[in-house]
Amino acid sequence: EVQLVESGGGLVQPGGSLRLSCAASGFTFRGKTVLWYRQAPGKEREHLVSNLSDGRTYYMGSARGRFTVSRDDSENTVYLQMNNLKSEDTAMYYCNIQGFWGQGTQVTVSS
How far apart are CA 15 and CA 39, in angstroms? Predict the structure, then answer.
């Protein structure tokens, strides 16, 4: 069974950092593109990052300069390091691989 599990979300103060994880079971990350999205209440899902299997990574506007993706293929896990978080980063964060979605992890940025 293919399963993606995001974790690492939580409550953080503005300016803080979080590292989200996306762990896969039932298939391997190796050779696959990993996408990160988020969705805030009342808003459409927003594409944040495309991490290609060849190592190239493309960050969309909201993620550029503050978010960094890394992957550990041996652990079948992809990470999203988020720094200098702002209140507008509050959302549910999801990873997507070949059309499979995890359940998401909630990030709340608030003082």
Answer: 20
